[in-house]
Amino acid sequence: MRPAPTFKRPARHPSLVPPLSPNSFTRLSLSPFSLPPPIRPAIPRPTKPSRLPNPRRIRAPEGTRGGGSPIASRVPTPRACGAPQRKQRTTDKYKMAISFKYWDDCLDPEDMRLMWQDPIVSKEWTDAGEEQGQKVHLSRDPDGEAYLTQTEMMAVAAITVHRHFKSQLDPYMIGALAEIASGRRLFVDTYDRKTKETKVGIMQVAPEVAQWLGRELGYKSYDIEDNTNLLYWPLVNVYFGAAYAKWLFSCDDKQRTEEFVVRAYKGGKKKAAHKSTSPIFQRYLYVKENLLSMRQPEICHELTPDLEDLSSAEAQLIYWDSKVSEADMDAMWKHPDVYKEWIKSGERRGNVRFSHDEKKRPYLSRVEVKAVAEIIISRHLSTRGVKPEALAALAEVCSMRFVHGVSTRTGLMGIDYPTASWLSRDCRYRAYTVISVDDLYNPFASMYFGASYLAWLSQYEGREQSYEFIVQAYLGGPENVSLQETGPFWNQFLESLTQYQDPKKDHNSCCIL
Fold first, then answer.
1. Is 470 a residue whose pLDDT tops 60?
2. What is the domain extent for residue 286?
3. CA 414, CA 219: separation in Å to the nearest integer?
4. CATH classification of the domain holding 384
5. pLDDT on residue 298
6. How many domains does the chain have?
7. CB-based contacts of 492: which residues, under 8 Å, 6+ apart?
8. Could you tell me the pTM of the whole model?
9. Cβ atoms < 10 Å from Cβ of 132
C-alpha cells in the first residue's frame, strides 16, 4: 500500500489562497470582509397549500430552512465589528460516525475518471504525489478535518452543473456557496436545538430537505431515502445543495435575485433582506471573484468526456437518441424539414447530435422545435386545438430552446416536475411518464406536458380564456395575470411567434388555438 503523502498539497494561487492555520479552515483570505457571526435562520412557516389551478407553488417542508443553515466551527470565527455574539450548538458530539480517507471512498469510478480528466485537478493531485490508478487521499487541515481544495471544489461543482443543471446554474455560484456554508469541509454537522435539524456536508444540506427535494421536486438522481449518509459524498451533497439553490430562485412564486438566494441559503429565507445577512453576500462576492481569477469560466465547460467513452448520463447531453424513444426518433426522421436539416449536417440514424452553444449547452434548432410540437399535437392533442407555432414560440421564450431549460425553468417548455406530476396524476395526461425531473429533459415529454398545460389553461376556471391570458398564465402563473395591462410575457411571445409563422401567409392577429 502506498504511504499517505505527509506534505500539504500546494494551492493554485498562493497569493490568493494562504496556507491553512489552526484558526482558519478556508484557503481564501477573508480580508477585506470578515465572516459574520453565526446567524440564526428564521423558520419559514408553510402557508396553506395553494389551490389548483396553480400547481407550480411549492413550499419547503415545515420546520426546515433548506440547505443553507449557518455553521459554526470549533475554531473561533472573526465577527463583524459591533455584531453581537449569537449562540448556536454545533459541536462534534452531533457528528455521525462516518469518515473517508480517500476520494475513491466517496466517488464512483466514473466520477473519479472525470476528476482525473480535469487538467487542473490532475496537475494538483500529481504534484501532491497522487497517481492515477491508485487511491487519492483527501486533503486534511491541521486538526485532521477532511476538506476539498478550491480546485477540487470547482471540479465537483462543474461536474454537477454539467450533468444536472446545464444552462440553469453557475458552477462558480455553487463553489462560493460551499465556501461560505462549510469552508469546503466534508464532515461538518450543524445542529440547531430550535428546529431539531442537523445540516451536513459541504453544502450544509439537511437530510429532511434533501428527501423533500427528491419527493416533491423530482430530484432523484441520488436515492438517499434509506441511507442519508450519502449526503457526505461530495457530488451527492452538492447536487442537493444546488437543487435547493435553484428552488430559492423562484420560491414563493417570485423571481429572486442572486443576492436573495445567497443570503437565504446561508441565513434563512426570512432574513434574506435583513441587514444581518448583508456581510454574507459581500463575502460570497469576494470568494466568487477569487474563484473566477483562479479558474477561467471556459475551463469549467471542458469536462465533456471523449465521445467514444461516454456514460449514459454524458451521452444524454450529446445525442438525441439517448433522451428520446425510438418511436419519437422515427417520427423526427420522417419529418421532411428535420430530415433535410439532419442529412445536411451529417447526422446518422442512432447517433443524432444535439446542437451545442459555445458553452457546450445542448439546444434544439427552430426546425426541430416546431417538428416536435407538430408530432406531439398530431399524436396526443389533436382535439384540443393547440397550434404548433404557439408551442414553439413558448419554448423560445421559456428556455431559449435549451434542452435543460434556462435558470429556474425546467426543460424545453419550462414545465417543472410538480406541474407535470399534477397533470399526469389529476388531469390524466399520461402519454409520457414523469418519475423525476430528469424525465422533463426529454424534449418530447417537456413539449407534451407544455401543450397539456396550455390546453388546460384555455379552460381555466371553467370558461374559455383569451389568448393573452393563456400565454401570460403559462409564463407567469394564472394568479399573477393582469388583463388591464399588456405584460412583457405577451410581447415576448408575439415577437417569438414571428419566427415560426409562414411569412407567405397573412398574420394580422395572433391565434394559438
1. yes
2. 96-294
3. 16
4. 1.10.530.10
5. 53
6. 2
7. 397, 475
8. 0.75
9. 11
